[in-house]
Each structure stands twice: as C-alpha cells, then as structure tokens.
Write a structure and sequence with these properties.
By secondary structure, this protein is an alpha/beta fold. The chain is built from 9 helices and 8 strands. Strand 7, helix 8 and strand 8 form a beta-alpha-beta unit. Helix 4 packs across helix 5.
C-alpha cells in the first residue's frame, strides 16, 4: 500500500510539472531608435516605441512583429489578444504618422523596429531565425515593403531574407493611397512604383501568406491587389506564396485571420526543425 501511495504521489508531481502553463511577461514603451536619434527628434522620441509580450523562462521561441493599421495616418501599437498564449513573442510597434511626416518615414520606422527585434530578441530568449512580420492594412503594407524591398532593412544592417515569413492582413500591394495622396494621385488611380510591394516581387523572398477579406466587401480593390501579388510572385518563381480570401468578412477581417497566422507560423517553425 505504501508503494502504491508513493507511486501515486510521484505521478501527481510529474503530471503537475507538465500541466504548468507557460508564464508570459510584457515590457512596454521600449524605444527602438538609439539614444542619439531619440534626442534629436521629439516626434521620434514620443512615437517610435514598441511593446513586447514574450514567454518567460523559455528559449528559442518565435516572434511576430505586428504593425497596426490606420492608413499610415492613425492607430496605435497593440498586442492582439488572439495571438497571446501561443508560445511565441509578439512585438507591437508604433511608428510616425502622416501628415506629420511623409509616409516614407513610416517605412523607415518599421525597418528600425524590425532591426530592433533582430538585435534584441535573443536577450529575451527568442530565436532570430524565427522572426515573422505581420500587421493589418497599413501595417501589412509596412511588413510587405520591408520584406520585399531589401533596401529598407539593408540600411539597418539586416538582410530581409532572414525574415522567417510574411503574413500581411489586407495589405495594400500597389502604392499606398497615402503616398499617392502626397503626390496628388487620386485614391482610385492605381499606381505601381517603387512604393508598391508589387514592384518588388522576387523569387528569393521569405514565405508569403496573403490574407484578405471577401472581394465584394473589401476596401476598394484590396483582394484583387493581393491576387495580383500572388500571381506575380509565382510567375517570378517564388515557391511559397499563398492567398486566403475570408468569405463574408470585410476590411476589418483580423479575428478570423489570426488562426491562419498562428497556423502559418507553426508550419514554418516545424519545417525549420531538423529532420530526424
């Protein structure tokens, strides 16, 4: 009887250790530019901040850098609830906004925040080979521009091909309408120039999962832009481009999109693991 009791206690201890949930911590309002840059520009000092939510006492976790939407003119950093408690870190990024600055500064800020992730995530326990870029609408545009046009991250000393995956939600694939507005181009005049992710299609880009709302409910031609991006990426030889259209959902399609993001991150992590 004593042996049975001891065995039972041992089982409870082992079971409890496996049942313990991962604890997470959040650090807020971290400046992602260096001290000299922050000191030189009050708006950078005020606006260029990020929050990080990460699993404590964990090693080699993946990280999603999440850029908020808002047309490059509004919005604030966020850690989406649907991405919490999934085993990876989330970095929510603020960036400067138009018209206070030219929209190109939004792209530059996004690059600086991504570089911060590459340069600092290991100190939190993260794996620099598992950094993903995502975001909604304008945030998706920033993720795409930095993932496809390598020059933005090159300025920060980062190779865009080191990004583990791009998962934009309803991103603008032609030139962003705020950049067109700055140049006197009407909202409904499609433009594809150096400020269009479509301009930078390439075969060697990171894996790309495009997610949009229903083509009949989306903003302007947002689904069709993404469908064109999918087609052109495949034509240039990119092997890992996929497009999901969420039937019945409009531009604010983040909630049904989050499980697709989580599944894609886990798929890529699994593929990166050494084959036994």
């Amino acid at each position: 009887m004593k042996k049975i009791a001891l065995s039972f206690c041992f089982f409870i201890i082992i079971f409890s250790s496996f049942a313990q949930k991962t604890e997470y911590d959040t650090k807020t309002n971290i400046q992602y530019y260096n001290a000299a840059t922050n000191k030189s520009d009050n708006y950078i000092n005020e606006r260029c901040l990020l929050d990080i939510y990460y699993p404590k006492d964990t090693k080699n976790f993946a990280t999603i850098v999440w850029f908020h939407g808002g047309g490059l003119t509004g919005g604030s950093k966020e850690i989406p609830e649907a991405l919490k408690n999934k085993g990876f870190a989330i970095i929510g990024v603020n960036y400067r906004l138009s018209p206070k600055v030219k929209a190109v500064k939004c792209i530059e800020d996004a690059a600086a925040a991504i570089a911060w992730a590459f340069n600092n995530i290991a100190s939190y326990g993260g794996d620099t080979s598992q950094i993903f870029l995502s975001g909604h609408s304008a945030g998706a545009y920033l993720a795409l521009m930095n993932g496809l046009d390598k020059k933005w991250l090159q300025k920060e000393g980062i190779d865009a091909n080191k990004i583990a995956g791009l998962i934009p939600f309803s991103g603008q694939c032609i030139t962003h309408f705020e950049i067109r507005r700055e140049n006197g181009i009407p909202e409904k005049q499609p433009t594809i120039d150096a400020f269009a992710p479509l301009y930078h299609v390439r075969a060697d880009a990171p894996p790309l999962l495009l997610i949009t709302g229903d083509r009949e409910l989306e903003m302007l031609g947002r689904y069709e832009e993404n469908a064109y991006m999918e087609r052109m990426m495949k034509l240039v030889g990119h092997k890992e481009t996929k497009l999901f259209e969420l039937d019945g959902y409009g531009h604010g399609m983040t909630e049904p999109g989050f499980p697709l993001l989580v599944n894609e991150v886990n798929r890529i992590i699994k593929e990166k693991q050494p084959k036994k």
